Structure formats: structure tokens, C-alpha cells
């Protein structure tokens, strides 16, 4: 019977390939154990790490590395050519096909989430692609060719090593599934755990046509609420209507404060707020009795040195007390893993069935065209911060192809 040989030492386990005969004294100080060959082992992957010639996986790849702490993404991050990493025993090597862009990417490059993190470190939070290599323990659940998505560090690369226990199997490598990992999960968990939505309530979603706002609109409608959404163009206003928003407000052509005051004099029951600054102040003033303001971000300040735009918080205690209202913060990592699994399972099912719209902006309408390749991540970040994106900004990656010497 054909076998796979495991060469073991005190430090690591390596997979070597071959039959059950003719392998003697090949390496000193190793103990060879004969086990049945498993179909999940990828010959091209083994060839890659033993001999690059003829391999389907290149020896090197492109990735983005944070080399300087700064909220200026182009200043903080450099494009590097590095060896394709080797997965450990419980890891998968994923060839990234699409990676997601998040407003918080520049908070990460500025070191705002972890003061102990010093450059250099990898950038990017989420990716989707195929398994092209794996460790022995990881092979119990996955095989080469599986399509997976993940929420973790180092996504801005052509290949990423990801712990097998953290990935999410997906039906196919579609960028729509990628939108759920951070943006969809944030809206789902925040509204369910902190929004306490009830039928007939009025919900305001700021930046409603953006990556996470689009999901907040849809989940609020599923809860049978009246949904108001802010946006910056008539095109976005039209999109919001298609996903159920009852009252889109283009703040470039309408007075946001005036519309809310005149059309919703009773106030807003729930506000899903991601802009910050003056919009946060307006949201506080528009809360209804027992209203809930959920802060999921404050993108208007991320590009500043402090990361914040000033708010008028001096009278906040009085305003909350007078209305029995509350302000609640939401940071997705705090809800891992307890709520995350349910959120992904539910949203993946809804996306696959067509019940949930997952709008993707891959840059087709930009002057330079689609976001393709690691280099275009810089441009995708810029695009998002101009406020011109419609839906979740996503970059398509094409793995480096090495030419024969």
C-alpha cells in the first residue's frame, strides 16, 4: 500500500512524500513512521517547500507591512516581496482572492488598538480564498482546494497563514461572502445585542450606504422598524431605497438636522452611528425617550492625529437623564467568539439565499478602474476615505506568477 512518511524530530514535523519502499538512511537522527497516504495532501505544496521548480505555489509573494505608525496609510505601509509562509501543524495556507477594506485599517496602522504593537507588523483584517497548503492537524477538517474566509491579521498579502480553527468555510470565493466577516457581523451583533429593536421603532443609520451601514438598514427592516439612512449622493439614496430604507437623506442636498427635527419630532429610538463629530452631537439631540445610540465608529476623525473629532459632551449626562436614553459602544473583537459564530452562520445563509444584499465596491467606477492586486489596496483605502464608495470596498488579488529561469 502506498504510504506517506512522517519524519519527526524533537522540534518539528515535516511531511515527505513517497512509497513504502527504498527509503533507508536518507536522513540521520530522524525516525520514519509509515502511515497510510491521505488524499488531502497536496503534492504541489510539498514540491513547493522542497523544490520550487515546477510548483504551483511561487517561492515569493507580495504583502503590505506596517513599517511606521501613522494614520496615513500610504506613509505607514510598504509593499514588500517576501517568501510564501509555511503553515504550522494547525494552520492553513490560504491563497487570497479578495481582501476587505475597513475604515479601521488606518487605526491599526496608527497603533491605536494595541499600544504594545511595534512595527514591522502585517496589515489587513479579512480575506477569502482557497486552501493551498495545510498542517497535519488542520487536515482533519480541511483539504487543499477548500474555499474559506477569515477575520484575522495579515490579510493584505497574496498568501496568508491562518489558524484552521478560526476560518469559516464558504460555498465559493465570492466577494459578497467577504462583506459579512466584519461589516455584516458588526451590524448583526450590534443591533441584536445593543439595539433591542422592537417592531414599529424608528432607526437611524448614519453612512447607511457604506460597508456596514447597508447591513444595519436591512437588519432593522427585518425587525419591522422604520429606517432612516444618511448618505452623500442621489445614487446612494437610490440604492438605499432598493434595500428597504424608508427615508434616505442625502445630507449634501438636504439639511439633515432640519429633516430629523421636522419629520421625526418624537425622536429616534435607535441610532447606528459610525461618523462621529458633529453627527454624533446631532444624534444625541435626536434621541427619543429610552432611545439607544450605538457607537460603532467615528470615521470622521480617523485621519486626524488624535483619531477623534471633538464632540459637545458637556451636557451629555443631562440629555441622557432627561430621556432615560443611553449611549452604547460596540467593538467587534469584544464579541468574539460568543456571538460571532451565530452572526456569520445567519448572514451567510441569508446571503446565499438572496435574502441579504451584500453590495461590493471593487472600484469599477473609479478613474483607474477595478482594485486588482496588492498595490491597489492603497488606492482602495483612498477611495473609501473620499466617501465615494457604495457598499463594502473590496480588492481582488492575483497571486504572483514566477517565470522560469
TrEMBL record:
Coiled coil: none annotated. It comes from the Eukaryota. InterPro entries: ADH-like_C, ADH-like_N, ER, GroES-like_sf, NAD(P)-bd_dom_sf, Quin_OxRdtase/zeta-crystal_CS, Zn-ADH-like_protein. GO terms for molecular function: 15-oxoprostaglandin 13-reductase [NAD(P)+] activity; zinc ion binding. Keywords: Oxidoreductase. Residues 72-395 form the Enoyl reductase (ER) domain. Its EC number is 1.3.1.48. One of its GO terms (cellular component) is mitochondrion. Belongs to the zinc-containing alcohol dehydrogenase family. Quinone oxidoreductase subfamily. This is 15-oxoprostaglandin 13-reductase.
Amino acid at each position: 500500500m502506498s504510504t506517506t512518511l512522517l519524519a519527526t524530530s524533537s522540534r518539528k514535523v515535516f511531511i515527505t512524500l513517497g512509497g513504502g519502499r527504498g527509503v533507508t538512511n536518507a536522513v540521520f537522527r530522524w525516525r520514519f513512521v509509515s502511515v497510510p497516504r491521505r488524499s488531502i495532501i497536496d503534492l504541489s505544496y510539498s514540491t513547493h517547500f522542497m523544490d520550487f521548480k515546477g510548483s504551483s505555489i511561487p517561492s515569493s509573494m507580495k504583502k503590505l507591512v506596517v513599517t511606521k505608525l501613522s494614520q496615513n496609510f500610504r506613509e505607514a505601509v510598504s509593499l514588500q516581496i517576501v517568501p510564501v509562509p509555511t503553515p504550522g501543524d494547525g494552520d492553513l495556507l490560504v491563497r487570497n482572492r479578495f481582501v476587505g477594506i475597513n475604515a479601521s485599517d488606518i487605526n491599526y496602522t496608527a497603533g491605536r488598538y494595541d499600544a504594545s504593537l511595534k512595527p514591522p507588523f502585517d496589515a489587513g483584517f479579512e480575506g477569502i480564498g482557497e486552501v493551498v497548503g495545510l498542517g497535519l492537524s488542520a487536515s482533519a477538517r480541511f483539504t487543499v482546494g477548500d474555499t474559506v474566509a477569515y477575520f484575522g491579521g495579515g490579510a493584505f498579502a497574496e498568501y496568508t497563514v491562518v489558524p484552521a480553527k478560526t476560518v469559516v468555510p464558504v460555498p465559493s470565493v465570492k466577494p459578497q461572502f467577504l462583506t459579512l466577516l466584519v461589516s455584516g457581523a458588526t451590524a448583526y451583533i450590534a443591533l441584536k445585542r445593543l439595539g433591542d429593536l422592537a417592531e414599529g421603532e424608528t432607526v437611524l443609520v448614519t453612512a447607511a450606504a457604506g460597508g456596514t451601514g447597508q447591513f444595519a438598514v436591512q437588519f432593522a427592516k427585518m425587525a419591522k422598524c422604520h429606517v432612516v439612512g444618511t448618505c452623500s449622493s442621489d445614487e446612494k439614496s437610490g440604492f438605499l431605497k432598493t434595500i428597504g430604507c424608508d427615508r434616505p437623506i442625502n445630507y449634501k442636498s438636504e439639511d439633515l438636522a432640519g429633516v430629523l427635527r421636522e419629520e421625526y419630532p418624537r425622536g429616534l429610538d435607535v441610532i447606528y452611528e459610525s461618523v462621529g463629530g458633529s453627527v454624533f452631537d446631532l444624534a444625541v439631540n435626536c434621541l427619543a425617550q429610552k432611545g439607544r445610540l450605538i457607537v460603532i465608529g467615528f470615521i470622521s476623525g480617523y485621519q486626524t492625529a488624535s483619531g477623534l473629532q471633538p464632540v459637545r459632551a458637556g451636557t451629555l449626562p443631562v440629555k441622557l437623564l432627561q430621556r432615560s436614553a443611553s449611549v452604547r459602544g460596540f467593538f467587534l473583537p469584544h464579541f468574539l467568539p460568543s456571538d460571532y459564530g451565530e452572526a456569520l452562520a445567519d448572514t451567510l445563509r441569508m446571503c446565499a439565499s438572496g435574502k441579504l444584499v451584500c453590495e461590493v465596491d471593487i472600484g469599477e467606477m473609479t478613474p483607474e478602474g477595478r482594485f486588482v492586486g496588492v498595490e491597489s489596496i492603497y488606492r482602495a483605502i483612498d477611495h473609501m476615505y473620499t466617501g465615494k464608495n457604495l457598499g463594502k470596498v473590496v480588492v481582488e488579488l492575483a497571486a504572483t506568477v514566477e517565470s522560469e529561469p
